[in-house]
Amino acid sequence: MPQMPIIYIKPTLVQKLIISYVIIVFCLLTALLYSITGLNSISKTANDIGSIDLPAAEAVDSMRNALKAQQRAVGRFTIISGQEYRELFSAQEVVFRKSLSILQKTGLGALHALQHDYDSYDRVAQKVFDGAAVSEKTMRSAFNLVEKGIETAQEQQNNQLDLKLAAAREKESKTVFRAMMMAVSGVVIAISVAAFLVYSLSTSITKLKRATHRIAAGDFDHDPKIAQGDEIGDLAKDFLVMAVRLKELEQMSLDASPLTRLPGNIAIERYINRHLKEQRPFAMCYLDLDNFKSYNDHYGYIKASELLKEAGQVIHEAVTGIGKPDTFVGHIGGDDFVVIVDEAAADAACQTIIKGIDAMIPKYYSEEDRKIGYIDGVDRYGVERRFPLISISIAALICRPGDYESAAVIASAAAKVKDQVKSSSGSNYIIVEKGIAGEA
Prior knowledge:
Elements: H1 13-80, H2 83-103, H3 111-129, H4 136-216, H5 231-255, H6 265-277, E1 282-290, H7 292-299, H8 301-320, E2 328-333, E3 336-341, H9 346-360, H10 367-372, E4 374-378, E5 384-388, E6 391-399, H11 407-422, E7 428-433, E8 436-439
Parallel strand pairs: 6-7
Antiparallel strand pairs: 1-3, 1-6, 2-3, 4-5, 7-8
């Protein structure tokens, strides 16, 4: 199974800029989002500390103070047996248990044991308030267990707070570092892309400038060797096409008629052969000024040259005036011209040319010759006869792919058709399509 060819797509300058800006914006947005996420995490930690750990620390102190107040109330009750000490104990119990509930939000492991020890302490104390015999050692032991539980809870709470603060500091450090790296990466990419584009543009423009000097010196085959794919590559491609066209124009200029400045035989043949090679249908019109030799003999070559020059201009303006692209006007020599147009424009081109020539010709005759409509002269056989005013005969061949093999064959066929047209008086044209002639 044949492998498919690999197609490399080179991005344009605009696409390169868009891609680079997308990468830069992506890096900056990522850095921004990462920073926001990090700040939110740090803010959450701070809120957690503010709403849980700080109240928990205060709750530990409150529990310790409440426990000591309860112990003093128990001690005084054993001495005085006043009911107010029992009420004081109960009030501090409310404070202790409230503080314990606040501390439970931290999820410390020591709270369960602390809760158990405090309940035991509370039962011992209640026995004292109820008048039961409780030794001081038992009371002191119960108190010490609760106090030790508070210290353990405080230690765990402090450790938990230290871990949160350490995690917050680490998160802050990582957030700042990574956000800075992402931002710096965006800046580095921007600078790299800018440097690459500047270097690429500078190199390509230098090559184009060098190629311009080479072409200006006449080296139309010079290739600037710029890779295609982006705008500079497309410009280089157009540059090469322009060089080829300039080479053709130079050759056409060298081949052009010095009188009419229209392209000559080489350019005509090249233009026809190119259409044949590309298999593009077209109409090849062979134009001949009738009775031009007699005019030249009667009025002289200077006047005849002026007539030919203006005739070339009239034909060129008539053809370009029909508004069809890819038209061509050439001067074979003498009073023979060639016009190449799109096949659909052949009829309009012939009519416009005849109208322009018929309007131009009378001004090149004297008033007397215009009135009588002819001049006296001698034909090519030496016979004296009357020659009508100059007219134009046009033989138009519709050339489609496969109809003709070469420009020479087309020229030969057009010459034969032209002879048919010249047999009629005045300006006329014939359009031949697939070997069928029709006169208008």
